[in-house]
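Methods — Computational structure assignment.
A single polypeptide chain was analysed. Its primary sequence is given first, followed by the predicted tertiary structure written as structure tokens.
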Amino acid sequence: MRNADETQEFTELKQRLSALELQLSEQKITLQKQDDSLENKDHKIQTLEEYIRYMLQQRFGSSSEKLSDDQINLFDEAELLSDDDAPEEESTSVPAHKRKKKRASIPAELPRVNVIHDLSEAEKVCPYDGTALRHFGNETSEQLDYIPAQMNVLQHVRRKYTCPCCNNYMVTANKPAQPIEKSIASPGLLAQVATHKYCDALPLYRQAQMFKRFGVELDRTSLANWMIKCGFLIQPLINLLYEHAREGSLLHMDETVLQVLKESERSAQQQSRMWVMTNNEASMRITLFHYSPTRKTCEADWMLGDFSGALMTDGYAVYDSVCKTKQLENLGCWAHARRYFKEARDAQGKEKAGKANTALAFIQKLFRIEKLSKNKSIDEKYQIRQAQTVPLLDELRQWLDKTIQRPINSEKLKKSVTYLNNQWPKLIRYTENGTWPIDNNAAENAIRPMVVGRKNWLFAATEKGAKASANLYSLVETAKANNVEPSVYLKEVFTRLPAATCVEDIEALLPWNIAKVVR
């Protein structure tokens, strides 16, 4: 009987044990889920904290992507390839930045107006012996003066003649062709409106207010129509600029967003694109803008046309596609790679930005090599890149391979490392040719005036307006790149282009051909 009771008790204990094991297993699963949830929450919190640090840096911090020399020296070659690739414990003090004040200078070519300051007749007598004073020299100082703009009215008087004998013949003197026929706008006025908008980023409605102060009522619609017609007028010049740009061996490309309110089959909220292409040549610099409603490959393909050289771009996939189709050398931009690591450093904070600082130190050394070899010949620059840049890139590649294999908690650091790895073949290609640049700053600098202007005028009303703006930006920025004053140049173009009858007449109006006339 006792054995039966013991057996039953043992069975009950076994069942209770199994139930406890099952309960324990369920609790483990629940705890594991809670741990996973907490880990995800911690990751989300960390990501949000990174974003907050990044936004604070963007809002209040320095925008420079460079490291100080002291920060670079924290990472020598041994440290860069060690397991502790970021000596987070070390710190360095950066001396305060001292900006030297540059005294304003007065250009020697400006006209001088003498303002004579003389003594009165009573003061021209010596107070000691009454002798008349003798003029022996002058003390001269200079000030810059400003003469406010003024509005004039050009009256075109066409003289008429007739034969006094037969009275059967009458002739009237011809009036030169105008940029906008039957318009009150002269070439000078059109040039000034275009310069204010496309060079000085002054919206048309503000210009209308300025003209009103001169007693002239010009509404924004009239000004906009004038700019559209001017954009159409200069199309032959733009076509020639495209031809010259495509004949070169290197082009830079970039694009930015543009909102156009009235586009066919598109809502006002949809973003269009403004593309930029520049050759960055010293003797014949060309900057071209192109409006398109989309960001498709066909737009870049059209701009490049029959170009057959090397193309410097950012990492946008469209450029990979067009380079493959046209068999172009696609160069990657180290400034973009540096920017991603700079964002990662800002997001992580100074205490945790070890890997980001390591990458930035590497990249800054690459830029320093380029800066020191800037004035070297093409062959010398190539030899310097092979001797100094290529070994440095090999070290950076080793660091990158080791970094990729390790877990990365920072989202922005992961993004920067991934970008560097994916773009690596294009990024190192510039070392193969002494004429190829290290970055795409030429295109970014070319597109910046349009981006600055967009902050003021915000959008384009119509597709025609956007296309006209692209043409006018092209002409203004190309003139600036060739050291030609835009307002004077545009006036010359608007005056002479309507009368052009052949390609030679249009060629003569290209900035580098007309420079001696309008400077």
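Note: The first strand starts at residue 160 and ends at 162.
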